[in-house]
Design a protein that fits this description.
By secondary structure, the protein is mainly alpha-helical. It contains 3 helices and no strands. Helix 2 crosses helix 3. The radius of gyration is 15 Å and the shape is elongated.
């Protein structure tokens, strides 16, 4: 389970974690398709902007760069 998932479930308790130097970073990519426009483009702009950065940080993620 990811730490971010455990944070939102009050019944889950973290008992141990893998050291960061034992695995590659976990990355969640984002991209628009060739026909991505409208709401998809707005969503991508949101997550890549200041409000998205704040939301990611609030839930324990590193913001996109």
């Amino acid at each position: 389970m990811y730490e971010t998932d455990a944070r939102v479930d009050k019944k889950v308790h973290i008992v141990d974690v893998f050291p960061e130097d034992t695995h590659l970073p976990i990355v969640y990519p984002i991209a628009l398709t060739a026909v991505g426009h409208g709401d998809a483009a707005k969503f991508m702009a949101y997550v890549r902007g200041p409000a998205g950065d704040a939301a990611f940080k609030a839930y324990g993620f590193s913001p996109l760069h």
